[in-house]
Design a protein that fits this description.
- By secondary structure, the protein is α+β, with helices and mostly antiparallel strands.
- It is built from 1 helix and 5 strands, in the order βββββα.
Amino acid sequence: MTALPRNVPSSTALQVPHWQRSSYSTGANNCVETARPARGPGAGLLAVRDSKDPAGPALLFSPGCWASFTAALQRTS
């Protein structure tokens, strides 16, 4: 069994149709963006990158891990 990748050195390596920002983000370009790669190294995972560096690295999460993370953030706010 092969382990899932946890990151990619450049988010441009992901085949992503569209990166999304939070509806709470401002025009200051200091937020994170998420996407769901359709195929390639991140297929089926959730990719997260820094909006200030769109060609920079992206972290990859399983959908379940991302849901747990965001739920934990909501409980602490």
